[in-house]
Amino acid sequence: MSDQVPVSGTEIVDATVRAVLLRDWDPHNAAPNEAAHGTYDQYLAPLRALIERGGTEDEIVDFLYDCEKESMCFPSLGTQRLRRVARNLLRLREPPAG
Length: 98
Description:
The protein is mainly α. The chain has helices spanning 9-25, 44-52, 57-71, 82-90.
């Protein structure tokens, strides 16, 4: 008998989105502190919805940029650096390798 709890597809996608945000975006430098890994969880559902409905790279970049500007009160750092984050998030649409 296993103690593992079944994981839904949504939980897997959210965990992957969280990992991308911590690795590639992380405006609060939360990645080094495991207790802070949920810092961006409020953005998981909107990003998952964007990805699932076929959102574009530009839409994801705009979403992240707006989060920085409005929610986090960050100064404008431009959007070019957000392109890599958006492309990594869009890779979630690709079928698993193997």
